[in-house]
Specification:
By secondary structure, the protein is an alpha/beta fold. It contains six helices and five strands.
Length: 172
């Protein structure tokens, strides 16, 4: 009788181990490949429209051409974050969190729908000091900072893990 119980327990443990390995390997990676990271660098757009000729000038004020920079989604690094003086958003992400994985997929797919922002993917588990600095207590938290790095706006997307709710709550 003991042999049967041991065999059943062994088969159960083996099945759970194989299932766990499958789930871990099929989950999206928490790190961004070098190629993809290089392709998400900020681009600068330059307005190359010609100035009106002297004879074509009127009394109307000159119209300014608004230029925008495409948004980017990159892994957090202290150096990149400190050097960035634009609209910076920290996304506290945990690779084991299903809501985080869903948000990660949606942000990657829809980052082009916003302008002039950089979303930094921060590892929730290993960035303890950063979590303390911004008062983050839950994964799926987004912190929008001003140019000196202080928190300007915070949103926890745990209950509504979609990019539309992030855009709405952070006014992107």
């Amino acid at each position: 009788m003991n042999k049967k119980v041991l065999i059943i327990i062994g088969v159960f443990v083996l099945t759970v181990g194989v299932a766990s390995a499958y789930l871990l390997l099929s989950a999206p990676s928490a790190t961004m490949p070098q190629q993809q990271a290089a392709s998400t660098e900020k681009e600068v757009s330059v307005d190359t429209t010609e100035e009106p000729k002297e004879s074509a000038k009127t009394d109307e004020p000159a119209k300014e051409v608004a230029t925008s920079t495409p948004a980017t989604y990159v892994s957090y690094s202290e150096q990149a974050f400190a050097a960035d003086k634009g609209n910076r958003i920290l996304f506290f992400h945990a690779p084991w969190c299903p809501q985080c994985r869903q948000l990660d997929t949606e942000i990657s797919a829809n980052i082009a729908s916003i302008d002039n922002a950089t979303i930094y993917k921060v590892d929730y588990d290993s960035s303890i000091e950063l979590r303390k600095k911004y008062g983050v207590t839950q994964q799926t938290t987004f912190v929008q900072t001003n140019t000196d790095g202080t928190a300007q706006n915070k949103f926890v997307a745990y209950d509504t893990p979609n990019f539309a709710s992030v855009k709405q709550n952070l006014s992107l």
